[in-house]
Amino acid sequence: MRPTEVDGVLKFLRSAERLKGSFRSAWTSNGERESVAAHTWRLCLLALVLADHFPEVDFARLIRILIVHDLGEALHGDIPAPRQDASTGKAEQERRDLLELLAPLPEQQRRDITALWDEYDGAETPEARLAKGLDKLETIMQHNEGRNPGDFDYRFNLEYGRSFTSADPRLAALRAVLDAETLQRAADVASDAR
Questions:
Q1: Is residue 85 helix, strand or coil?
Q2: Which DSSP symbol is given to 192?
Q3: Which residues, at least 6 apart from 147, have a Cβ–Cβ distance to it below 8 Å?
Q4: What is the dihedral of CA 61, 63, 67, 69, to 10 degrees?
Q5: How many Cβ atoms are within 10 Å of 129's Cβ, its own excluded?
């Protein structure tokens, strides 16, 4: 590597480190806010343990997509799903942030990583569709096991990301278990509030 490439890679990695301190709307089981980096790590772990059930998917490509899917959130953070609507422009902002974050890297790396992010956003390939589905399932799983604030809306999760988790029977089976957990968690919170 040329010294300028080393400098660019280090600058990029130092900026991406912000994901460790960028928080999501989920809470961990010990009551701490979940970071974007922690979500991405467990999402990749979820893909790893399910890989054998999806032989038609290019696993290496899936992992690359998962690693970069929230990378743009390093600059402006995450917008929780309940606060998203068509007017938030979440995807457009994340893509702009991604491009800014990637700027120090060599051009080919910028193109490759941007293409992976675009593939995820478009959800047109088997890998991207699976990435979207797993992303939704990991989020619901974290919501179900986290020590969340008292006003946490568990019922939102019952429809969250359903379009990405219902078409594939393997994801639908996981979703059914998580939906049952969600209903139980919502009922527990309602009974505690009485």
A1: coil
A2: H
A3: 27, 28, 29, 30, 31
A4: 60
A5: 19
Q: What is the pLDDT of residues 142-158, one digit of tens each?
A: 999 999 888 888 888 99
Q: How far apart are CA 191 and CA 116, in angstroms?
A: 44
pLDDT digits (tens, 9 = 90+) for 6-49: 999 999 999 999 999 999 988 999 999 999 999 999 999 999 99
Give me the CATH topology for the region 3-193.
Hypothetical protein af1432 (1.10.3210)
pTM over 0.85: yes
Beta bridge partners of 23: 35
Q: Please give the helix or strand (H or E) that residue 157 lies within, else none.
A: none
Q: What are phi and psi of 133, to 5 degrees?
A: -65, -45
- Two tokens, residue 73: 């959130």
Domain range list for the chain: 3-193
Residue identified by tokens 């038609």 is 56
Distance CA 3, CA 25 (A): 39
Alpha carbon distance 40, 43 (integer Å): 5
Task: Give phi and psi for 178, each to the nearest 5.
Answer: -65, -35
Exposure string (b/e) for 5-28, b if CB count within 10 Å is 16 or more?
A: eeebeeebeebbebbeebbbbbbe
pLDDT given at position 3: 80
pLDDT at 74 over 80: yes
Per residue in 121-136, pLDDT (tens digit) is 999 999 999 999 999 9
